[in-house]
Amino acid sequence: MSRIDDLIRELCPDGVPFKTLGEVADYSRTRVDGALLDEHSFVGVDNLRPNRGGRVESSFVPSSGQVSQYLPGDVLIGNIRPYLKKIWLAAGSGGHSGDVLSVRIRFENVGLIEPRFLYQLLASDLFFAYDTKFAKGAAMPRGDKAMILKYKIPVPPVEVQREIVRVLDLFQTLEAELEAELEARRRQYAYYRNQLLSFAEAPQRVRWVSMGELYESSSGLSKNADQFGFGQPFLSFKTVFNNLAVPSELQSLVNSTLAEQGRYSVRAGDVFVTRTSEDIDGLGMACAALVDYPKATFNGFTKRLRPKRVGAIDAQFAAYCFRSSLLRRQIAKKAILSTRVSLNDEILLGLRIPLPPLDEQRRIVSILDKFDALVNDLSIGLPAELEARRQQYGYYRDRLLTFQEVA
Known about the structure:
The protein is 38% helix and 20% strand.
């Protein structure tokens, strides 16, 4: 980093000016016709990938009306659930949904700050922590647009910005190579999981049943935002979405009563399913409870499937089925499409899954657990190597983007 240190000593030895984001940039004020957009140029929050993963092509494109326009160099930020860290630096022009913010450098500041440097500042953990802190809403928090513009950023000389971007781009390239290899392994795992759960080669080993034959469905606990952060354990939407099994300790808390703890309980054998999401990929994701969680409750944006009889189905087997193509196709076909996608009890309990004998279910779970660990366990193999690279990149990003403010 000696080149950067030399530039700082030469160009800004006494520190750099800090400005609010709103002094440097603003949200896009221009519009574009939806009919002019396609899957390559439209950006919705659903096709911005989490953890600074860029974007994928859109599966939904507006056919009429106008949407906000983005231009090359704009920084697009997913404004729902800021903790997902959805962000992308636009290389071309297009349009985006209302759940995406397009941050554009003000005309008078072009040349003062580089778009890629602004992207790095807004892709930092510091910014997303700030954005999450001021987000509004409990289960589906949304970033506060006014507070985002009040976020303070350093504005060093352009020569310093460009050198920092060059170094951080190298780290990102190395990380992207590992991510591509891991993604290839995940596709292999998904293919094997789908084959294993299709029972195409031995259909006589299974019978197909509806979820309603196995489970009773109920909705979760809804509370005002000021009731979260203290009290008793709470199974959040985020935890359900991110885990095949409920973690041994629940980090979220809610102020729940004894009556609520009884009504919205979390017990061994329960399966929790996300019932609503801004995109189809977040809908119908399942998480299995393997033990009882005394005093715990679950969130209102998920459904609880409680088995009607013990020993009919393994909870982890059911969770794997929900994440396999055989149920993903059914969910995509039957989901209620409006402002958000959702599942009701009729749809959820009407889903059909294969039901082999219990010992066969557990054998399949044992196999899939090993595959899942190979592609998701951060303590071993390629996931561990990628996590180490991300930590290294995060360390240098935070270090390089930290400046002394000029007096």
